[in-house]
Design a protein that fits this description.
CATH architecture of the largest domain: Up-down Bundle
Number of helices: 7
Number of strands: 0
Order of helices and strands: HHHHHHH
Low-confidence stretches: none
Oligomer: single chain
Strand content: under 5%
Number of domains: 2
Mean pLDDT: 80
Radius of gyration: 24 Å
Distance between the termini: 29 Å
Length: about 220
């Protein structure tokens, strides 16, 4: 193995985000290209400077690969978010069809407006989160750094995180203010819903965070010489 190639790969790898496996996959692809370039040069090992000139400065390459890693993770997290939301919607409709509208859960007194507000939000927030997740996945798939793509991607990331947070808060408000006579029923529903909403919030945060860092890598690359 060329020492020059390994040196170059170490410089790139030290700047890459993601897990060891993700970094290794990208470095393996880069290694193949570098080795091919070195082998095609008659001066072999002494052609390191030319290889660097062809492939670019390690910081620039790391920024480009880092953006690809962040975009891929943003897309995966957005699709996970969308998938869980669809599953939750299907399960909720199945529950409602089987048991009817749980009007008996509505409390009286001061907690009634809180409960009703929560039920209103919990119907709207998933739709907003779904739309945001679709836009996140779509803009991450474009792999474009155009201004409007960056704007839509960032806005959809914020929208997904905001809508998911509202969903979590409204679910908590419903569970906390439901009619005490049906508290066991609420608790039976609350545990799986809490686990799913925690996963939703985690996925939305990852999608938004990776999307933001992807375009930060673009800005970093643009400032490099």
């Amino acid at each position: 193995m060329s020492t020059a190639v390994e040196r170059y790969l170490r410089e790139v790898g030290s700047r890459l985000p993601g897990s060891r496996r993700v970094r290794a996959d990208h470095l393996d692809e880069l290694r193949d290209g570098l080795l091919t370039a070195v082998e095609q040069r008659p001066d072999g090992e002494t052609g390191y400077a030319e290889v660097v000139a062809d492939f670019g400065d390690p910081a620039v390459i790391a920024a480009a690969l880092g953006r690809e890693i962040h975009l891929r993770e943003a897309r995966r997290s957005a699709l996970r978010l969308l998938g869980v939301l669809v599953v939750m919607a299907v399960l909720w409709h199945a529950y409602r069809d089987a048991y009817g509208t749980p009007s008996a859960l509505i409390p009286d007194g001061w907690s009634r407006p809180v409960f009703l507000a929560g039920t209103d939000i919990i119907r709207i927030a998933p739709a907003v989160a779904m739309a945001s997740a679709v836009l996140l996945a779509a803009t991450a798939s474009l792999r474009s750094a155009h201004t409007w793509v960056r704007f839509v991607h960032r806005a959809s990331g914020v929208g997904a995180l905001f809508a998911t947070t509202l969903f979590c808060l409204s679910a908590a408000a419903i569970a906390a203010t439901a009619n005490a006579a049906h508290r066991l029923e609420v608790l039976a529903l609350a545990l799986p819903v809490a686990l799913l909403t925690a996963f939703l919030l985690w996925s939305a945060a990852r999608a938004a965070g990776h999307g933001r860092r992807a375009f930060q890598e673009v800005e970093t690359a643009s400032r490099l010489p």
